[in-house]
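Example: Metal-nicotianamine transporter YSL6.
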Amino acid sequence: MDQKTYELIGTDYPGNRAIDVKNPSLGWMIGFMFVVSFLGLFSLVALRKVMVIDYKLTYPSGTATAMLINSFHTTSGAELAEKQVSCLGKYLSISFLWNCFKWFFSGVGDSCGFDNFPSLGLEAFKNSFYFDFSPTYIGCGLICPHIVNCSTLLGAIISWGFLWPYISTKAGDWYPANLGSNDFKGLYGYKVFISVSVILGDGLYNLIKIIYATIKEIMNAQSKQGKLPLVQVQDGDEGSKLSAEEKFRNETFLNDRIPSWLAGSGYVGLAAISTATVPMIFPQVKWYLVLCAYVVAPLLAFCNSYGAGLTDWNLSSTYGKIGLFIFASLVGRNGGVIAGLAACGVMMSIVSTAADLMQDFRTGYLTLSSPRSMFVSQLIGTALGCVIAPLTFWLYWTAFDIGNPDGMFKAPYAVIFREMSILGVEGFSALPQHCLSICYGFFAAAVVINLLRDVTPKSVSKFIPLPMAMAIPFYIGAYFAIDMFVGTVILFVWERVNRKESEDFAGAIASGLICGDGIWSVPSAVLSILRIDPPICMYFKPSLSS
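Written out as structure tokens, the predicted fold is:
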């Protein structure tokens, strides 16, 4: 929004007007954070039982955190627990040291190191098919059900193996050639809108199914549980013990509940305050547009939370871009740029905090923590963040030359998002040819696949892929799907060799891999702040032909 980004894009850039500028100010930033940041916390509280207990979504990072916490507080099964803690610690250390080793070869920029290792060949690497040695996603593959990992890989093959390469051949026909990698008018527009169409198709179907089941339960005055996507049933004595433990977790999770009336009234009240306040901060955004955003936001928050529960990917930025594009097109040339950027901030805040809260509920469920206490803690943390985040930004903004292309803090996404908003002013007509038609087809396909999962016998439906998991690599890339598939192959073989051992230790190993990767981010950030660059850039290119 600021003057510097306006000048970087160029005063002669079509649609880039001097009037569409709003420079940062500590006052309006803190106010904006307070009126939009809490809505996401209230948007999905009523669905916590469905997401955590009924659908059994794994939320891999939340599960890993819970296992790490439980390892220090276990009171039963001391011998097994001791082995699990030892296993977790060992693989946490391996993951941390591996990330430390990788850092020495990661160089400066985004093209060096093991994260860009063309393990499947340079041609496959161009389409993001490579194994990037990420402990986090191998760990996610060990935690997530096999159907999730296989669905993710299938989505990567469909999108990056066939769809995007085919659409790329239409450059110059369906869309202008030589566009930037983040230009909605080109291939990027297909990636964003097609992936979101699949996510919305899956999310809308499941949300309608939940609403239908809830209404039916109320009308019949009895509990009615339909076919859920990720329920695993185990038999025998071990299964009975697991069921007893699971029943205890369920009772603990549901006893200290957050009243639905509180969640609903909180969301409505905060939405009313925000609807009145946001137009004061951004006059370009009319109150009725803000109200419409808050009506649609719970659906998008559900979709994002559902996807994060399956694959550990939080796609809040993708939903933010959709909000940016739609609001910019609705407002038009008279303020559409600022309106789109403001809507992007609103949408990202809601869907991101909703997914984070649901992930924390998953952690609380596994650690037998009070959901009410966790919710209150989230409220306190969010309130602190509404002050600390703007203050931190303001410290950098005043101390450094933020946004300078030749400086340390280039902030490249500032230019990208402003250009997206400028493009959004033109509306859906700016999208590349056939984009909306393809989106309609993928939306319908997501609904049909979910219908097939619900109407076919369980022996068949367990092999039908999950559209939500398939959609994530459409936008992100194929590399993480390959990492997760490596994890699921390891688990599959392990289960065949020694199922009991895999059940006891797979979660501990996965948690260690994920936590070690996360802990490395702290020293990595310190090295970055101290401006200490990796000494080696490991880079791959084709050998010279003779």
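Confidence is low (pLDDT under 50) at residues 222-240.
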